[in-house]
Amino acid sequence: MKALSIKQPWAWLIIHGGKDVENRTWHTKLRGRFLVHASKGMTRAEYNEATWVFGPLGVEVPPFEDLERGGIIGSVELVDSVDSSDSPWYSGDKAFVLRDPKPIPFIPLKGQLQFFEVSEGSLP
Predict the structure, then answer these.
(1) Domain boundaries, the chain
(2) Domain 2-122 falls in which CATH fold?
(3) Which has fewest Cβ within 10 Å: 4, 50, 104, 105?
(4) Considering Cα of 14, then 16, then 19, then 20, what sign does the dihedral take?
């Protein structure tokens, strides 16, 4: 199955907070369900900057130290790749339109750039 590394708290927001687009600078032809990998790296400054987006939307995110990082946290369906969106989460050049997020128990796994393949042997 394909996976995509996304920095926290954005990964958590996709799975738990109603974030229905993933902002990117590139399009993808991929459609269907993929695993959401929470990247290992996240600075306090990046977390604080993200609060400027999710705070006004009324979404409560776990504290910085409680966000799981460096592994799979769920899956979501990618239904489109667009140049613009009316979503309050849209802020990029392009975005992946997402729906039907499903949390899963945390699975530690090293991430990669772009979409990457996760073998069934890597998953419990």
Answers:
(1) 2-122
(2) 2.30.130
(3) 105
(4) positive
pTM, full prediction:
0.93
In angstroms, rounded to a whole number, what is the distance separating the alpha carbons of residues 115 and 118? 10
104 has a pLDDT exceeding 90: yes
pLDDT digits (tens, 9 = 90+) for 65-79: 999 999 999 999 999
Pick from 25, 37, 33: nearest CA to 1: 33
| Residues 40, 102 contacting (CB under 8 angstroms) | no
E strands along the chain, which residues? 2-6, 21-24, 32-38, 71-82, 94-108, 115-117
SS3 content of the chain, % helix, strand, coil (to 5): 20, 35, 45
| Under 8 Å between Cβ of 38 and 70 | yes
